[in-house]
Design brief:
Radius of gyration: 21 Å
Number of helices: 14
Number of strands: 9
Structural class: alpha/beta
Low-confidence stretches: 327-336, 370-375
Helix content: 25-40%
Length: about 375
């Protein structure tokens, strides 16, 4: 997860409006969203179904009216007496009140797969499945108080609930979703910029991308010694009908540098068919903490993998973001421990010059807004 300002800067620097920007490890969809907001064609893929669900909501954004109308219909058609939650896993039932869980189970069954409007509702729901509560009782999510971005193991959560006497909040999912939509600044008209799909980055890109190659590939591939994303997203994967073991079996997660080099070799080989001859490949790769000293993983990828494949190196730029601003500080009591330095590895498939750098701005573009209306 890297700052949206970084994605915006690179996109403005290396592309023009109308160019295609591709992220093959799209994660939460930072790159495609910034590309869309800057008038580029945003395409994204990932091997993680959670990442695909989030990214689909950021490559094609429905209007405020479309989403509000759909949520209103879902709310009106909901009948609590028709929803059976007795077969839901105990680990899920410990997080939500019965009335809240019924609404979630209903949405889980009703939200249509890969539908522009429902993609956004699904992504917003996923983001609110668990969150922390304030001492005053306010909540940003539907579950018992869960302070971290990732969900701890079910056993840990169960003990935490008991030790702290937590009570499952009885919240209205539909009302909370509408409140979130009202604050999102959705556009007056739908914006369809591109698409997102399930893709193992070590496999050949789809024909549509090979035929219309990206001017810029901007992505953050897995680092060494990363967490298991499926394991720590077990709540969100439940909503998607997936299991952590299924997901983690498909994702790169290793502390072996040799295995990582092999993995990145396969990825870079496939990305040659996805980037334009006059395009650029930018990889955000964090240094890895080791007992014998920090490893500059970006430099290692260039030295051991990319250089032998014929890529042209423009540079490796360090991004020493202050700890308090790191998106990677997901653990409440261990802020900023994920990596000290992120590095931007900038390459191109052929020897070409970089454009003149743009002026740095931390202001993000805005989508056309519509004032919320009563439903």
């Amino acid at each position: 997860m890297f700052p949206p300002q970084l994605a915006r800067y690179v996109i403005e620097w290396l592309t023009k409006p109308g160019d295609t920007v591709y992220d093959p490890f799209s994660g939460r969809g930072t790159t495609p969203l910034e590309a869309l907001m800057l008038g580029r064609r945003a395409v994204a893929s990932d091997a993680n179904p959670l990442a695909v669900a989030l990214s689909r909501s950021k490559t094609a954004i429905p209007s405020y009216q479309q989403v509000s109308s759909r949520l209103k219909t879902l709310t009106e058609e909901y009948s609590a007496s028709d929803i059976d939650i007795s077969s839901e896993p105990d680990d899920i039932r410990m997080l939500y009140s019965d009335s809240t869980l019924r609404q979630l189970v209903y949405l889980k069954s009703r939200l249509r797969p890969n539908h522009q409007v429902d993609n956004l509702l699904k992504a917003v729901t996923l983001g609110m499945l668990h969150a922390n509560h304030s001492s005053a009782g306010a909540t940003a999510g539907f579950s018992i108080s869960m302070p971290n971005t990732f969900a701890m193991s079910p056993g840990y959560v169960r003990r935490y609930i008991t030790d702290h006497g937590l009570v499952k909040p009885n919240v209205d999912v539909f009302a909370m979703l509408q409140g979130k939509l009202d604050r999102m600044g959705l556009p007056d008209e739908a914006i369809v910029s591109g698409s997102a799909w399930m893709q193992d980055a070590t496999k050949r890109p789809p024909k549509s991308l090979r035929d219309n190659r990206a001017k810029l590939i901007l992505t953050s591939p897995p680092y060494l010694q990363v967490i298991q994303y499926g394991k720590y997203n077990w709540v969100r994967l439940w909503f998607l009908g997936q299991t952590p073991k299924q997901v983690d079996a498909t994702l790169m997660s290793s502390g072996s540098l040799a295995k990582y080099h092999t993995f990145m070799g396969s990825v870079l080989n496939q990305l040659r068919e996805a980037v334009a001859a006059d395009g650029y490949l930018c990889l955000v790769i964090g240094d890895v903490r080791r007992k014998d000293g920090d490893l500059n993983l970006a430099q290692s990828v260039w030295d051991e993998v990319a250089s032998s494949q014929g890529w042209h190196l423009h540079g490796i730029v360090p991004d020493r973001l202050a700890t308090e601003h790191k998106v990677s500080r997901i653990w409440k009591n261990n802020v900023g421990r994920a990596t000290k330095v992120d590095r931007l590895l900038i390459m191109s498939p052929t020897k070409t010059a970089l454009p003149v750098p743009v002026n740095l701005s931390w202001d993000r573009p805005s989508l056309p807004k519509k004032e919320p209306s009563a439903l």
